[in-house]
Amino acid sequence: MHRISLEGRGDFNEWRDAARAFLSADIAPQNVEWHLRGEDAGLFGFSEEDPLPVSTTTKKLSVPAAFMELAQTIVCHSDPARFALLYRLLWRLQQDKALLQFKADADVTEARKLEKSVRRDSHKMTAFVRFKEVGLQPEQVGRRRFIAWFEPDHFIVERKAAFFQRRFTDMDWMILTPKGSARWDGETLETSRLPAQQPDLSDETDELWRTYYANIFNPARLKIKAMTAEMPKKYWKNLPEADLIPELVLNAERRVLEMGARAATEPQLFHHRIQAAAESRPVPALPDADTLAGLKHEAQACTMCPLHCKATQTVFGEGPEGAATMIVGEQPGDFEDLAGRPFVGPAGKVFDQVVGETGIARKDLYVTNAVKHFKYEARGKKRIHQRPDAGEVERCRWWLTREIELVQPKLIVAMGATAVFSLTGLKEKVSDLRGKPMPMDGGRTLFVTVHPSYLLRIPEERRKAEEFERFRADMQAVRRLMDGTGTASAMS
């Protein structure tokens, strides 16, 4: 058994040199004991430690670049078992270079856990370091001096020192912690791994922090669990603004009621001038309610279902009022919701391309959707499309029915199951109805096909090409129906 002791205060090189020596000597992880220097010291204050082995091979050692970054981060962790974990990973990587990609592996899982903890601790350091001014530097006129005390969980001072040097390069500062310190004098950045003692610091900026925090604290959005997760209580003792938190939380409900009462008061004087100016303007004439323009204006204020709460705007149909052919899709997507027009996103581009290839002019079509508001689920910065449910389709059917009454199309093309349900009430599979012209009330013809977005979701290129050809054939059938050369069969 080989025993090695390390200082263990964030120095990657000391672990790398030892690990390289053991690996070169082909010593398995189970035959190495990793200790912190001073740990298990004997009667006279020292413990036994074996010299590093001498390599007897010329074998070249290599590891993936991802492991180097991972190891440099984990070495900063305070867990004594980190060195043994890293050596096990290093040993196993010699046989399997793809090891780090196996997230279910126990060693990889533990390593990622330690890495995440170090990165989180680093983030907290950049957020919660509070500098206190201690006077001017005697030998450098005009340069101010600051000191900060911080208590990290891990040995991260060296990792973050350059960040503070870039941000506060115009002043002299020191950051003291129990796990090392950093100093910048305007020319040289120095770090130390020795523990520091907490200084007695206080200045007038403490009150500025309290004033700032009191003003940005929103009692109406108070979520204690989220707040303590972002600002853990262990940091409060070194944050001047933390003194205010208990009272702000305690009085949050009262302040919300006071904010609500203030919201009902009279507006400021200048608001009256704005209102007076608005009243003097001529009232624009509203479009006739029995026209598409009037129906579109009315639809902008639609609140028939909850979808209007999250959508940017109502996306109404567009096209000539006397169009002989109406295209009905499912609902607006992300692009349509922002633009306020139907079929202008990726699916709309596919539609335009195919109908153009079949000789159909979009300007001759009335294009709309069964549902007029975008239904989605927010995932980070993305808005992921969600299919409207039956209740939402039924509530929006009123608008589609009025569009049909005003446009009076002879042919309606339903794209997708939602459009079919809205127009007929049927919940049949699109594949069972596709490509079969069917009669509708009012002497109209219904033609069913897939929605263009379906084509975009097909991952396999060969099948996607086949489905594009089927959709193109459907649009050619629509063209024949528009020209009066197609036939309508009875609905079965």
Total of helices: 18
Overall helicity: 40-55%
Q: Which blocks of ≥5 consecutive residues have pLDDT under 50?
A: 40-47, 487-492
Give the oligomer, counting copies of the same chain as homo and different chains as hetero.
single chain
Largest sheet: 5 strands, mixed
First and last CA, distance: 83 Å
- Secondary structure: number of strands: 14
Structural class: alpha/beta
Give the percentage of residues in beta strands.
5-15%
- Average pLDDT metric: 86
Q: What strand line-up does the widest sheet have?
A: 3-4-5-6-7
Over the alpha carbons, how many angstroms does the gyration radius reach? 35 Å
Coarse morphology: flat
Describe the secondary structure blueprint for this structure.
Elements: E1 2-6, H1 12-24, E2 32-36, H2 65-74, H3 82-93, H4 106-128, E3 131-136, E4 144-149, H5 157-167, E5 172-177, E6 180-184, E7 189-192, H6 205-216, H7 224-230, H8 245-250, H9 252-263, H10 269-280, H11 292-299, E8 325-329, H12 334-339, H13 346-357, E9 365-369, E10 376-379, E11 382-385, H14 390-407, E12 411-415, H15 417-424, H16 430-433, E13 438-440, E14 444-449, H17 452-456, H18 461-483
Parallel strand pairs: 1-2, 4-5, 8-9, 8-12, 12-14
Antiparallel strand pairs: 3-4, 5-6, 6-7, 10-11, 13-14
Helix pairs in contact: 3-4, 14-15
Could you walk me through the main structural features you see in this protein, from its secondary elements to its overall organization?
The protein has 18 helices and 14 strands. The chain is of the alpha/beta class. A hairpin with a 4-residue loop joins strand 6 (180-184) and strand 7 (189-192). It is flat. The strands form four sheets. A five-stranded mixed β-sheet has the order 3-4-5-6-7, covered by helices on one side. The chain is 41% helix and 14% strand. The protein has helices spanning 12-24, 65-74, 82-93, 106-128, 157-167, 205-216, 224-230, 245-250, 252-263, 269-280, 292-299, 334-339, 346-357, 390-407, 417-424, 430-433, 452-456, 461-483; strands at residues 2-6, 32-36, 131-136, 144-149, 172-177, 180-184, 189-192, 325-329, 365-369, 376-379, 382-385, 411-415, 438-440, 444-449. Helix 14 packs across helix 15 (417-424).
